[in-house]
Amino acid sequence: xxKNPLNPVYFGRDCALVNLKKTNIFRSAQxxxxxxYLGQEWPHLKIPSNILRARISENMxxxxxxxxxxxxxxxxxxxxxLNFSDYAKxxxxxxxxxILKVQKIDCMLLDWHMPEMDGLELLKLLKSDEETKHIPxxxxxxxxxxxxxxxxxxxGAEGYFIKPVNxxxxxxxxxxxxxxQTLGLKK
Length: 187
Description:
Layout: E1 10-11, E2 17-19, E3 24-26, H1 49-52, E4 62-65, H2 69-81, E5 87-90, H3 93-102, E6 107-111, H4 119-127, E7 137-141, H5 146-154, E8 159-162, H6 167-182
Parallel strand pairs: 4-5, 4-6, 6-7, 7-8
Antiparallel strand pairs: 1-2, 2-3
């Protein structure tokens, strides 16, 4: 659901929805996947405590792709605070493709703006390849315009986060992805 694409208030897919004006998260346990559009009001979201208490399996392997070492460090810190230790990181799309050849990756956090190949180009490449199209990709960016959100979702992104990434919302999204993989709901 996208309401007023030039000034998004709601953005969701399947049974999940974020309402930024009321700063609440609306979710359905039946959701096979969910996408969040998060604008400047995201720090004020009230996240139900039962969602925050959900644990993420240590078996889930994440690849962080961001050309900013500062962003990489912040995302790593968030993952460690969520008791996550199984992740790989790199600073370019080319390096990400090399990692994907040798490691099993369950989820990717992908920066939009990178030199050589940007995140959207890598996303398109991943989703067009039989070997990688099943990997959930969440886009990370400093921009929150509706056009980019739409482009990411149209090209197969499972989520869209505005930097700096909110740790609690990242936890929710990773838990959703893990649940979908456990239930065999991979795309």
